[in-house]
Amino acid sequence: xxxxxxxxxxxxxxxxxxxxxxxxxxxxxxxxxxxxxxxxxxxxxxxxxxxxxxxxxxxxxxxxxxxxxxxxxxxxxxxxxxxxxxxxxxxxxxxxxxxxxxxxxxxxxxxxxxxxxxxxxxxxxxxxxxxxxxxxxxxxxxxxxxxxxxxxxxxxxxxxxxxxxxxxxxxxxxxxxxxxxxxxxxxxxxxxx
Length: 193
Fold this sequence. Notes:
- The chain has 193 residues and is an alpha+beta fold.
- It has one domain: Protein Transport Mog1p, Chain A.
- The chain is built from three helices and ten strands, in the order H-E-E-E-E-E-H-E-E-E-E-H-E.
- A hairpin with a 4-residue loop joins strand 4 and strand 5 (82-90).
- The longest helix has 21 residues, at 169-189.
- The model has no long low-confidence stretch (mean pLDDT 87).
């Protein structure tokens, strides 16, 4: 009698599980909805040998890492969980300048392991003596954008954008495209003092 009841329950579970034509398809991974802020800008003029325009929704703070030097700043984008690291270096010799330019290239190309492509663009604003290279790094690399700016004689600054999350291009792409426009404004407005 006991086995008959157990058998009846098992048969009901089996038929319930098999009954009906239920098509199952896994749901795609969901991501948070991003609400983009209104673009408004202000000028960074703190006691460094450069100025630029940056968004009001970004927060600039001094770099507090142990290797940080004067005028190294981090531009935080809290709503996107991203940071643009800006590292300034005075240039005293041609050899030092060449080493800094090579370091920028090396840092950008360290991402080739995860990158699907790395493109370079020339930056040149001769009227302001601002020159450099902009690296666009596609794929699931840790940094999607890097650049350096210089006056070719005594000033050099390097920028690197990082999202503080696992690098998945499909999830950060909307925020990345938004922040890239702010970086364009920064570069186009950049001036040496």
